[in-house]
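Components:
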Amino acid sequence: MRTRHTLTAALALTLTLGTASAPALASTPAAPTATASTTSSEDWTDERSRALLERLQELAPAGSDRVDTLNRALGIDPQARAAQLERAIDGSQYECSDTELMGWLDGQLADWDLVDILILSLTGALDWPTYDALLFQPDGPQHYGVDGEHTKELEKTFRTLTAFWDVDGSDIRMGAMHGSVIQDDARMVRLLTFLYGYTPEEAQELTDLIQDYLQQDKFAGGDHPLFSFNAFAYSEEGAPPEAQLGIGDKIIMGDGILEGMGAIGLGDVAPRGILAHEYGHQVQFELGLFDDHAGDAEATRETELEADALAGYYLSHPRGERLRNQRVDAFVRSFGEVGDCSFASDGHHGTPNQRSASAAWADELANAKGAKGHVLPAGTVSDRFRAVLPEILAPDA
Ligand SMILES: [Zn+2]
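Structure:
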């Protein structure tokens, strides 16, 4: 039974490639490399960075069962990611850089150096926004996108999705993931005391040190997209007791992934498409569709492609988003942007062609003759999709 489905599991997974040969980053007292030339970065002399690192090594969490549980639920492997980031700033390629989206993210890391990765990995700070979102959001009115530019659109889409599908979505809550949460003392102290058993004073000191470091222009105080480069659906429905965290059904939308989609020209439809895909996972949870599959890579690919199909059906349907023509092309493309790199390495999410074919199939189903105005039960869409899946998965399908 899977308890979460992330949009960019692709990134997390490909990061595990090649870790055997990568240095154990967290224990490497690396020499700072030349930093990029933002004014405030120049304030961070080698000496100052080293002093910070020394203090962080004393303060750094030694490990925590709670964090281990969250990482398992979220598919996060901090050490593997650190190794991947290290390769990225070395000028070598992301495993994922064959997509425009991952190429864009790579570009956003051009001015990071090894010390940055060391500091942010050692402390777990790269994942603080994700943990905060999973554990505590929404804890009040939400905004989506760094400046709330996606709030109206996503709240409307969420309401439409809830009415569209014939499953009870009334218990699903949507929340935002902002890297800037790291600037919020109260939320960080709440998070770090909970995760690591710190005293409030220890949590505040660690928060202060990281906040200070993130003042450098290149991190935008945490609004750099890497801190929130994901969206995910979470449910404990059917999960074994030891895997349950007591968290209700939720969908989390990260600023970074929304920004990235906008940067590659998909800002018009990708936010709705990502949300519809995550909602598709909630439909799968409600219908028990994950139970039909063993938890291997092939099963994950099938449920991911099915979530694409459910999303595509909703996006095209006259009673859903009613997208047409180029906009259908755009959401089909947006699914390809987030999934393929993982598949290329270990068969995880589906190739761009498979994802496109799933969405295109759903577009046809939503606009079939005589279907106008009638929304099929989600279970029927699932059955029909699984009937054509072998064709979609066939070579050269
Ligand atoms: Zn997914």
